[in-house]
Amino acid sequence: MSKCDITVIPQKNNYKVGDTIKGEVKVVVDAECKCDALTIEKYWQTHGKGNRSSGCLEVDTLFSGVWQPGVYVYSFSFELKEGPLSYHGHIINIDWYLNARADIPWRFDPAAEIDFILEKSEEVISGTDSNDDFNYIDRKKIPLNDQGWWKLFPLIFFVIGLVLMYTGESLFVGSVFTLVGAFIFYKMIQSAFAERKLGKVLCTVEKEDCRPGENFNASIMFTPRENLDINSVTVKLLGKEIAVSGSGTNKSTHTHAFFEEKLALLEKKALPKDFPVDRKCQLKVPDVAPASFYQTDNKIEWSVVFEVDIPRWPDWYNKLPIKIIN
Amino acid sequence: MKLPFIHLNLRFNPFGELTPDQRKELAVVNIDSLKASLNKEAVAIQFLADHGRGKTMHLLFLHRYYSSAEYIKIYQDDKPAFSMQAVRFVDSVENLSKKSRFDLYNKTSSIAFTTHTDLSGELTDAGFNVITQNICMDDESILNQIFSRRIKYAQRNAGHVPVVNQLAIKKLKTLYGDDIRSMEAHLYELFQSLKRIENVKV
Description:
The structure holds 2 protein chains of 2 kinds.
Chain A: E1 4-10, E2 14-16, E3 20-29, E4 33-48, E5 54-67, E6 70-79, E7 87-88, E8 92-103, E9 111-119, H1 153-167, H2 171-198, E10 202-205, E11 209-210, E12 215-222, E13 228-230, E14 232-245, E15 252-266, E16 269-271, E17 277-284, E18 293-294, E19 298-309, E20 316-324
Parallel strand pairs in A: 2-9, 11-20
Antiparallel strand pairs in A: 1-3, 3-6, 4-5, 4-8, 7-8, 8-9, 10-12, 12-17, 13-16, 14-15, 14-19, 18-19, 19-20
Chain B: H1 20-26, E1 43-48, H2 55-63, E2 70-73, E3 85-91, H3 98-106, E4 108-115, H4 120-125, E5 129-134, H5 140-154, H6 166-176, H7 180-193
Parallel strand pairs in B: 1-4, 1-5, 2-3, 3-4
Helix pairs in contact in B: 5-6, 6-7
């Protein structure tokens, strides 16, 4: 059987958004060989703990016909118009690839793949259009301090758990349902409980879209309904990788916090009733912050987390997502 | 920025998640005795084990010999409608209700599937000759092959790459028994922290 070897040779490994990647595909054949199509694909793909996500596929056909024994070189070029930028984290990595493949009838298709790095262009891209493909979380869709009836949903698990235990159907499953249902319900309503003492709490972040290195303001306001001791009021800028592996009953979600900066807005203090509390601070997005990334099984999420720690009472907690753009 | 894992002469962490096609390509299993079994009528092969022991890997590997046969993955609460098939591969068959399973048996001549629970009783009742493969990935030489193949698949250029040696495998077995998924999770973290090409220390 004839042998067909393929090599992808890029001019270099590192590119910036807006560059054109150029190179050659070298094919070595030692006997006559029909090729239905020699293609080269450019795409990004994640790798790490999560199921692989990929996108921005662009394909170019370099040749079709019959190869006689010899060495053939085909040039290719692709414009690198948009992200995501290459990212190497702990459980999520994003990389760009060139994959050349020869479609040879009735044979295993020879192929070669190389990876390359896509970095930020020195020019700042205005607006967010370059990242529109990545389904960033739309802030308008996220209810803050939502008091909706949907919060009762975990109680269904709680009740099912109790029924399973009471009827003796399954003590283990029943207790798991009961505990998980109760815990989720508690987490959902804990801020509402806290507001019985704190009054309505309003927290804001000045910007929804930030660039690495930028500063932005965050604030929290409330007026206690009663005299109140608090342990602390804190705000935290949090960067997290979230990767999902497997599916169905084998599905696992892995998280890794790669950035965390916590500031105290208020130390341990006694707050008098009806005395308005209005605290502001400035947070800085790190210079090397990766852009927000949102795919089904791989996410890079940024958020600002506000917390009011009340002794012997449920703490108040809220998380506002922000979008980091490159 | 450097290419990922270039300091280890790798393209990616070998113990990260792979696509189903890659898993099929890298599977190390011994199913020689089963290769032709499904060509006979009324044969049921069940790959039986707990979570993370490599059942799916075995099923995917066997499917390579019957690549035109239907391969389906059943999720919890799935109620698929089955058409008549000569050979069918089903991952996680226990997610089907008993009624759906009997519908599956009635509409399949020969079948291979993965399961956590032994279904040989109901398969025999449905008229199948049952072959049960208890999956146990505790053979050190098999584990060595699996880990070596994954590292080789992630290799960037010719030359040295990190090695998971027999000593490391023994320690992984002590920690995780035959739970290969937990071993791979452990190795993932070790490869993330490796600074240079060396033998992996568990």
